[in-house]
Design goal:
alpha/beta; FAD/NAD(P)-binding domain; D-Amino Acid Oxidase, Chain A, domain 2; 2 domains; 10-stranded mixed beta sheet; 6-stranded mixed beta sheet; 33% helix; binds flavin-adenine dinucleotide
């Protein structure tokens, strides 16, 4: 192939929020960029999330209390966590590595590393919002995180203290104050916390599409095919695509979310990338029920007012990427929706399953591959990819240009997993 679009400075594998933000940032630094993805831009996990720019989200799912609570979580039918035991048996190294990251010292390290990245959210996101003219998709708002019981409220003291230590601005709320702030919530909560200074996205897919349209309008190239494998050459990386095309790129960014391990020769296949499946249910005519994202802590979901209606998004299911959607999970979310808003909201108008890409330490992998400095990893953003996609893109653009990012990114390096199996 001789055409210039087949010799980009950067090829990005994956058109989710992380890949598109990386492509747009690299393009704005003057690099020629191609994105490859056989699915429509923004149609993966970046489509159906809760829309929260969750800058308060430095506390990982890993926690010492998770181990204590595990038996109850696994035996309660409506619990927000479900594990498929066959999947768990096939992925024991990931499960054990996840549990090893639940000690207080590890949680402290992870919290600090996430807080570092989260504190740069605006520096990654705001220039892209401005470039894409996407201001209208954001609503500046506080978030409410509400507890049903005093016991879970008290169990959250450690994580609240960690957030406070890392500068999260918050106010505690009584149940009555929640009812006053959000009269559309018919359930009585025991108490809650208001995370201040947040914003949410009214339509996450519209955001990725808007960023993608800017990328194309500014001369970016999109190929509707997946990247199958990579081979280093003398001056770059050769990518084999699922449509038979080959692209010689200066650098390749692996931003295929939970699917990143499928790209052979990239080195991602050597890393312990897992998947936390999550669901949403939509109630088309009920966005007015809340004025801001409201989380039910025990249910592990957010109810967010969106352009398409009221979206309840969250929960965790440990099962494989190719297992079919589990109707019991969306039924449980629907039951919670009825408890929270009353049965008159009816049945969901649509349901969705997405795949959070999660490393056992809940930190993303950002930086060069151990296979080649020309392959850059940008995946593993777990519950925070919408929030962290843009700052990740900015770091990736630095690395693609050969610049050193303006803060220490070693906590996100692939090398933290020690001796990597090849
Ligand atoms: C229920 C739920 C609620 C959430 N709520 C929030 C929230 O409120 N705030 C927040 O910050 N985050 C949230 N998240 C997390 C967030 O959605 C994800 O972290 C984020 O979307 C991951 O983005 P991504 O670009 O890495 O992956 P994706 O959006 O999945 O994109 C990956 C892309 O790679 C493509 N691909 C796959 N294989 C290949 C290949 N071989 N070659 C090329 N392309 C390939 C796929 O087609 C896909 O388009 C939530 C997640 C879930 C499931």
């Amino acid at each position: 192939m001789t055409d210039e679009s087949n010799k980009p400075d950067v090829l990005v594998a994956g058109a989710g929020i992380v890949g598109i933000a990386s492509a747009l940032w690299a393009q704005r630094r003057g690099l020629t960029v191609t994105i490859a993805d056989e699915n429509a831009p923004g149609s993966g996990t970046s489509y159906g999330n809760a829309g929260a720019i969750a800058t308060y989200g430095c506390v990982p799912v890993n926690s010492p209390s998770l181990i204590r609570e595990m038996p109850k979580l696994l035996t309660t039918k409506s619990a927000p966590l479900r594990i498929d035991w066959l999947y768990a048996a096939r992925n024991l190294p990931w499960m054990f590595a996840f549990l090893r990251n639940c000690t207080p010292a590890r949680v402290d390290h992870i919290t600090r590393a996430l807080a570092e990245l989260l504190s740069r959210t605006d520096a990654g996101l705001d220039p892209l919002i401005e470039a894409a003219g996407a201001q209208d998709l954001f609503v500046a708002n506080d978030f409410i995180y509400a507890w049903e019981s005093e016991k879970t409220r008290n169990n959250s003291e450690t994580s609240l203290a960690a957030r406070r230590r890392h500068g999260v601005s918050m106010t505690m709320l009584t149940g009555a104050e929640i009812a006053e702030l959000e009269p559309g919530v018919t359930m009585s909560f025991h108490s809650g916390v208001r995370f201040e200074g947040g914003r949410h996205v009214r339509d996450p897919q519209a955001l990725t599409t808007r960023l993608f349209d800017r990328f194309i309008a500014d001369g970016g190239t999109y190929v509707s095919a997946n990247v199958r494998s990579l081979t280093p050459t003398d001056d770059g990386i050769k990518a084999d695509l699922s449509n038979g095309e080959k692209i010689d790129a200066g650098k390749v960014v692996i931003a295929a979310g939970a699917h990143s391990r499928s790209i052979k020769g990239s080195g991602a296949e050597d890393l312990p990338l897992g998947v936390e499946r999550g669901y949403h249910v939509m109630f088309a005519d009920h966005a007015h029920r809340v004025t801001r994202p409201v989380a039910w802590a025990e249910g592990a979901f957010y109810a967010t007012p969106m352009d398409g209606g009221l979206r309840l998004a969250g929960t965790v299911e440990l099962d494989s990427l190719d297992a079919p959607p589990n109707p019991a999970r969306t039924e449980a979310l629907t039951t919670r929706a009825h408890t929270m808003f009353g049965e008159e909201i009816g049945q969901p108008t649509s349901t969705w399953l997405g795949f959070r890409p999660t490393m056992p330490d809940s930190l993303p992998v950002i930086g060069p591959s151990h296979r080649s400095d020309r392959i850059l990893f940008a995946f593993g953003h777990q519950h925070l990819g919408l929030t962290l996609g843009s700052i990740t893109g900015r770091i990736i653009a630095d690395l693609a240009e050969g610049r050193v990012p303006n803060f220490d990114i070693s906590a996100y390096a692939a090398g933290r997993f020690g001796k990597i199996r090849r």
